[in-house]
Specification:
Layout: H1 25-35, H2 46-65, H3 69-79, H4 93-99
Amino acid sequence: MDFCPGLDSSAPAHVDGGPGRLADESERDLRHLAVGRNNWLLFGSQRGGEMACRLSSLLLSCKQCGAPPQAYLEDVLMKVATVPASEIATLTPWAWNAAR
């Protein structure tokens, strides 16, 4: 390490992806929820917390299937009122990403 002369040049385990690294993509996606736990206490109401949970779940679904969240939300919000109930499954992030 150039910034600390005289120290051993081997990197500690937490720097080079040692045993503490997140191995699973799902764990990595949920990590921000645990890190910001104190922030999630300030929704103002039960309904606000429920809506934030749904939105977070939707955005994580977009991320997992590779759909760009902003483009997905813009497109789906324009279509949701006109799509028949029998075709609502086409608006899921996975179906939307496969169709584009």
